[in-house]
Amino acid sequence: xxxxFKLFIVIVIFSAISGGVLASxxxxxxxxxxxxxxxxxxxxxxxxxxxxCTNDPLQDRFKIKDQDKERDFFVGEFDxxxxxxxxxxxxxxxxxxxxVITAVDVDTDKIIGVAVTTHSETPGVxxxxxxxxxxxxxxxxxxxxxxxxxxxxxxxxxxxxxxTISSRGVAAAVAQSGEIYKRLKNDLKxxxxxxxx
Amino acid sequence: xxxxxxxxxxxxxxAEIPPFRLVLGLCPVLxxxxxxxxxxxxxxxxxxxxxxxxxLISMLRNVIPKKVRIxxxxxxxxxxxxxxxxxxxxxxxxxxxxxxxFIPLIVVNCIVLGRAEAFAAKNKVIPSFADGLGxxxxxxxxxxxxxxxxxxxxxxxxxxMPVFGPSFQPFGFMVQAPGAFVxxxxxxxxxxxxxxx
Lengths: 197, 197
Fold this sequence. Notes:
heterodimer, A: alpha+beta, five-stranded antiparallel beta sheet, 5 strands, B: mainly alpha, two-stranded antiparallel ribbon, 2% strand
């Protein structure tokens, strides 16, 4: 009986110590991991659409709570003014969710750029929604409040040939950004004014 | 039995080199050696875990009760593996994306538990450290060598840089799963032939 008790104590101490070690390592690396994930997963897309900005949008980011969900917003500075905000939304594609970053100018409500971050579309077909610059470019300059639908659904977005479903996913994600933008516009403007300093 | 620390270290590099002589830990050997970089990254991560767990288990070998030693070993190993996983996410995120699930799987790598059970639990701290480092480096070298062969033949590159002219037709079989088996089999065969002399 005493033997059992000793085994029990040893295991408890072992687990407690390893739990403590892990918690402290996790705390120490948490911010860096979050930043690394942004750099390698969302970074390329954000830098693509924010080309020519004079700050680091990954550093200038803030969170806003939107219907029980925290969303990340990335701020871009153009000509000395922080007036572009980018954020990620998801649309249903052929092989799962497609992550799309949409950057919007808060002064004019126009889209600065659209880029795909993560997707699992068919390589060489649906993946063109990410790699074909012409597909993303057609969103540029459109008002974010517009209706985004592919032509097959009666909209104005030119789908990538052979990849209507993937294109529809991207269009749906952009349309969703429009809704979020409308919902949070006042919050966004306030936050960006605050960061202007 | 009176082996020096140097002998313990060098045996891991040749006489007991893990995948070829001990034929242990084959899951990561087959899975991650598509390229040199992956192989060495995996090897370094495993080495770190091996050295840390060997040293700690050797220090605690008189505290750990015999009946629950496996549970205690696994707790120690799992802690170090999680630490490696967090550090890799924080400092080498692209490598983490490539190795993915195989980092947490180091916990069940037979080499690590094997060394803890067969060596660290019976020996003093310094030989255990030497043993862990030797076996770890041997594992890293083997993974690097297999990765190099498969990468050069399978994609015509070494460490991501092309080695042959543009006319080289990559032997794509080598970077796929069956290529790993064939390559490992041939390496084992060569090692056995050399061992016979």
